Please model this.
Amino acid sequence: MKPITTALLIVGSLICAASLASAADAAENWGKLCASCHAKDGSGSTVMGKKNNVEDYRSAAVQAKFTDAQAIQIITDGKDKMKSFKEKLTPDEIKALVAYIRGMKK
Ligand code: HEC
Model:
């Protein structure tokens, strides 16, 4: 194998490993910090979620209501009953959570 091919393979597998790690982190953060209101599956069917009119993120129509930038802003600064998460999460973790939410769409 040519050295350049080997180098590309190594870089490629590192990128893969990094994105897998961030996917696991987002799922973990979601379960720890968000699922109490938004539910594990994003449906919002929790006591807290129903009380606060949390929407169902499995719905494409709901997902179309906010942009990634708005989602980042709301997770960072909070909205209504949802508090700010900027003390708990890094900007990268917040971005990963937005991607995670996008993945809930059916
Ligand atoms: C205390 C309950 C609660 C927790 C915990 C919570 N949220 Fe929320 N979240 C809400 C409420 C209430 C809204 C506003 C609902 C609305 O206006 O439609 C909201 C709105 C949002 C929105 C904006 C989309 C929208 O429907 O307007 C996003 C994105 C979001 N939450 C993600 C998260 C993430 C990610 C976490 C965890 C880091 C989290 N939430 C934790 C209650 C919560």
